[in-house]
Specification:
Two copies of one chain form a homodimer. In chain A, 36% of the residues lie in helices and 21% in strands. By secondary structure, the first copy, chain A, is α+β, with helices and mostly antiparallel strands. In chain A, helix 1 runs antiparallel to helix 3 (46-59) and helix 8 runs antiparallel to helix 12. At the A-B interface, strand 9, helix 7, helix 14 and helix 15 of A face strand 9, helix 7, helix 10, helix 14 and helix 15 of B.
Chain lengths: 450, 450
């Protein structure tokens, strides 16, 4: 019945129940179980979204927004079936103001598509989560990535969102001004709300100038604790790194096996420095001194493109190395803790993974105190999943007790639901009431966060 | 009846109905009419706040939090009488972690008190609204000021808030980690909520390193439009000014009259540059070139403390010059627009004030697109208030139509209520529902924002 309504309002060519489409929209890049939606709507405008939500409200059908499908916590999986909204046809740049360093895009524009346009004007969109995610999805999960240490996460880039509410109302959460003290900050509230409060259709973003010069560097340390201390030292020295990434020895081994490389098998730090040439050169010199003072080995720095790529290659290869192990699945961690707790935290995680008897990798954005753990298990071996799951739980609870969060950048989705009470305490009840206020019928991405 | 309850729960020494106390808590620094509260509670802990809110909920008595009283939009005026919560005894630094560049304070700690402590560690709290406001009040209004162009507003400094809800529930909105994608962003929501959703009792803030070196500069232009273009030029050149302030010619005349100075009577830009010495010197050279290319006059720059003070003196004297005109009142503006609309916007405002026949001043934080207008009128002259009010309304509506906001940093309070519908449209209804969700009995700072 609601299907006919969708066809009547949107037109047949925007509605699909083809098996291939249903399968494609049944999962993301996480280990969470796929669930087929009943129908996929290839919307083309905010008005289409309004129609979908009105029909969904009338017939009480779940609606799950689906971006590039690159999420890591199952946010886009339609766990209660119903309608999936696909944004790939809603991919227009609407307004680009280089003089304001600002751009307004539809939710289906991807990160690389956006940068391709603005890079020509000496500007960049700073958030880099790795995947070529859609901007709408990046807002919905408050994505960040390697450059957040310098420019902040997705929430820090936003001026205004256009949102369609459950009843089809269209609203704007902000203005085009750089700051405002008017009314409640709904922009921040919708950022990271994972499609549970409304559907984001347009986004107005801040842009940054492309730094004129950059250098990359790499070094290794004998302990992961020292690695974390080294990252802390860089921050305390006030060196404004563009990127600062940790990869532990165990991950380096995996990369060598996977890519046939011969990177020194030790705990490694990767840096990118960017800015005016003179400043960058001074920063690299200072960083080198500080790292050597801490006992680093294998320090390498480069400014030409080829060598920079070589230095960064291990970091780039890591995701493939983990993903490509046949018959092996992983439980992914994404905790973020205060910088001062990093050394203790990564040591705890490393020891716990070693004790578990399973393969485990640690890497991440140490400049933010955000690091990832991957605990690998063979689902065909009895008990391995349970060990992996318990190990991950222990790491997350340790992070929360250290004043940190269960998710620095991937979001809650399905995988981090169980930690919400421990992390948010009394605020969780307020979050549930907020959800109910925006979505009294529970049609907006139900089964997520709570 | 509720009075006796307050005395029983808090103790007599925390409750005052002395006339002097009632008067002191009846107004802020705005022109909005004073209203005496029924009672002032000098709370000393979060538990005291819990007791006050429980009693206020039981007896349906309005509760208005009162900080330093330095607000400019009447947020702290108890317009529906009832209880005022005074925070001056809740002024402890609770946790200072220099290695995390982070501090947790009670809401009654003031900006200067905080900086006095952290400055000794080479750190600073960046937000500078001029007044020695309390941190709780600064969160409640999302305050900013002269340094927001570089470090952002209050909202950008926050990691966690402790909030007491209307029913006395204590909750935390965030964590100590630098970023999080877990749950809804309640920290952002409470920032700028002006005591209408809950009472903020503790705040965890980010700190910044004190720049090693700074220089100040000043120059003048023949038109206010050129002044705004000059500010835009500085930003587009990527010069990371610490402060960049505009003062129009009319304001400079007032300052000269008030302070007996002899500043060149023209539209003026004031700069502060800060960072590593070499970078600062390069920035000043570049800024000087760019300003001269645009036709500036009276360029002066200095690095020694005495000369820096001289350069900045006009900016500092401005507030006194406006406030000290006997028999004159002012309607204050605080719009913020996209940078590209600044030249047109300040020109429009200047022309409108000139046409009104009233004295008017323009100054502000042009690096953010945020500027203040002061339209001065004699309340004893029939019709002057109406002209001032209409002129202010026209300026604000022009800013909103330019994609801007009615308040860049002072907040809504009483003075900007009438612009909420024009600025927020459909979102205003959501804001009202949010208010109702948090405060079903309407006891939290009633009569503000909506």
């Amino acid at each position: 019945m609601y299907l006919q309504q969708l066809i009547d309002k949107l037109g047949k060519e925007k509605i699909s129940q083809k098996e291939a489409d249903l399968i494609r929209h049944s999962r993301d890049e996480s280990i969470h179980a796929a669930v087929l939606p009943d129908v996929v709507c290839f919307i083309e405008s905010r008005e289409d979204v309004v129609e979908v939500l009105k029909i969904a409200s009338d017939y009480q059908v779940p609606v799950t927004p689906f971006g590039a499908g690159s999420g890591l916590e199952g946010q886009a999986i339609p766990v209660q079936k119903g309608i999936v909204i696909n944004f790939e046809r809603m991919n227009k740049i609407l307004n680009f103001s280089p003089e304001d360093m600002r751009i307004t895009v539809q939710a289906g524009v991807t990160r690389l598509q956006l940068n391709k346009l603005v890079n020509d004007h000496g500007l960049m969109f700073s958030v880099d989560p790795g995947a070529d995610a859609m901007i709408g999805g990046m807002v919905a999960t408050n994505a960040s990535g390697t450059t957040a240490v310098r420019y902040g996460a997705m929430r820090d880039q936003l001026l205004d969102l256009e949102v369609v509410l459950a009843d089809g109302t269209i609203m704007h959460t902000g203005t085009l001004a750089k700051k405002s003290s008017s009314g409640y900050n709904l922009t921040g509230l919708f950022t990271g709300s994972e499609g549970t409060l409304g559907v984001i259709t347009e986004i107005t973003l801040k842009l940054h100038s492309i730094p004129e010069y950059s250098m990359m560097a790499r070094c290794t340390f004998d302990s992961i604790e020292l690695c974390a201390r080294a990252a802390q030292t860089i921050l305390q020295a006030g060196i404004p790194v563009l990127r600062m990434e940790l990869i532990d020895a165990s991950s380096i081994s995996m990369i060598n096996r996977h890519s046939g490389e011969n990177f020194p098998v030790n705990h490694s730090l990767f840096f990118e420095f960017a800015g005016p040439r003179k400043s960058v050169e001074e920063e690299v010199t200072l960083a080198s001194e500080l790292m050597h003072k801490l006992g680093c080995e294998n320090w390498t720095a480069a400014n030409d493109e080829k060598k920079k790529d070589e230095i960064w290659k291990a970091r780039k290869d890591l995701n493939y190395a983990i993903a490509c192990q046949e018959g092996i699945e992983e439980i992914g961690g994404d905790v973020c803790v205060p910088i001062s707790r990093m050394p203790e935290m990564v040591t705890y995680a490393r020891n716990l993974m070693d004790k578990s008897g399973l393969n485990g990798a640690i890497w991440g954005h140490v400049g933010d105190g955000n690091f990832h753990t991957s605990i690998m298990y063979d689902p065909s071996v009895d008990g391995e999943f349970e060990i992996a799951d318990k190990t991950n739980d222990d790491i997350v609870m340790y992070a929360i007790q250290a004043g940190g969060t269960c998710t620095g950048e991937h979001g809650v989705g399905l995988g981090k639901m169980k930690f919400q009470e421990a992390e948010h305490g009394a605020a969780l009840e307020i979050m549930k009431r907020t959800k109910h206020m925006y979505d009294p019928n529970g049609i907006l991405n139900p089964g997520k966060i709570f």
